[in-house]
Amino acid sequence: MIESHKLKKRDRYLNKLVGFQDTEPVKVITGIRRCGKSSLLKLMVAHLTETGVRSEQIVEMNFESNDFRKMTSDDIYDYVKKRIVSGKRMYLFFDEIQRIDAWEDSINALRVDVDCDIYVTGSNAYLLSSEYSTYLSGRCVEIKMLPLSFSEFLYFHNFEVREIESAFGGVRKQMFDKNGERYELREAFEAFMRFGGMPGIADVGLNQEKAFSLLDGIYSTVIVRDILEREKRRGQKRITDPILLRKIIMFLADNIGSSVSIASIGNTLVNEGLLDDGRRKGTPSAHTVQAYVNALLESYFFYEIKRFDIKGKEYLRTLGKYYIVDIAMRNYLLGFRDRDSGHAIENVVYFELIRRGYDVAIGKIDNAEVDFIATTVNEKKYIQVTESMNSEDVRKRELAPLQKIRDNYEKIVLSLDSGPDNSYEGIKSENLIEWLLEE
Q1: How far is CA 143 from its chain centroid?
Q2: pLDDT higher than 70, residue 134
Q3: 106-109 contacts: CB < 8 A, separation 24 or more?
Q4: Residues paired with residue 116 on neighbouring β-strands, in sequence order
Q5: 348: CB partners within 8 A, 6+ apart
Q6: Residue 188: DSSP 8-state
Q7: pLDDT at residue 337 in the model
Q8: What is the pTM of this model?
Q9: Domain annotation for the chain: domains and CATH numbers
Q10: pLDDT tens across 218-229, in order?
């Protein structure tokens, strides 16, 4: 549990839960382990008690706990039924329920038999896979949770951003710690790029050894429980080689933001001597590599982004990209590196767009590429990400794909150094850190 004296707010997600309170669908909170799902349930329980719901109307079960993890689906149903308060609506909270075989039977039965509002968390997309859709299709709403944003990172680590009047006119943002010490935002951003957004880091402090120890625990749990153990429970034998799994993880972590295919993953691993080639016995096929990649996507360790042909107005099947859910996890796996820091900040922008509710794709226009097309029902944005816009050569390179796009949607270049101008022929140039704080 993420708790330092009291739970830190995650209003972006809590407000969504409150918005669905007392509606018929089961509320399903998904996301990688330790990103804050259990704490979100506790925040929701606190909200209920603060608004007059009595404690006996609330049932909480965490299936990581010894108290519950050996239960069957029938045991869950019986446990809740014994605690029903006659004539009152019940609020049922089930944490990491995917560990229980046939969990959906008990949830569906409770939904039908009891006047209740149900909240469920899970660390694997298998929770909502097609095999369960017949039970919960149309009867659940998914709330996708991510590690901390940059703004949340500052809040969790007890920093406050204030606007300070400049000696030369205008205002600029600076950051203060709880003792009133002043820091530049760039320092905080560099700390975020190093330590990432796992909420538990706030408990151990910005200490590299302790942070990596925590990340090691998350990594091991995801790999063992959410991938290898889950395969056993499903009775499938596709993902049985932890060494191959780690090699694929290392490849994807090394290539965030690069266009890759399943074939290129296999070929690279063969070329580097990490896999046997097809002439030897026991070589994983492209189908096997795809199964391993899918498992990593299902556990929310990596996210895949598709390419969209802007002129042809269609998604392309080839050469998508992968981003890692938390940039510190990459530092833990590969060590700190400066040579591809551009891809690292791209990774941060991708997840910030997802947090803000955008559907995100890579844009292809002729032979050029736009880093992100971000769309909602009501808006569309084209976004380029680069470290600096100070160099004229970089400006030309980053602006060229956006200049090819003929529609009137917003076009933005985000960078840590936004260059001499705020706009280039209608294309905005914005400071990345300021943009991250806009939420």
Answers
A1: 11
A2: no
A3: 106/73, 106/74, 106/76, 106/77, 106/80, 107/26, 107/135, 107/136, 108/135, 108/136, 109/77
A4: 90
A5: 150, 192, 193, 327, 436
A6: H
A7: 79
A8: 0.93
A9: 11-144 (3.40.50.300), 150-204 (3.30.890), 208-436 (no CATH)
A10: 999 999 888 887
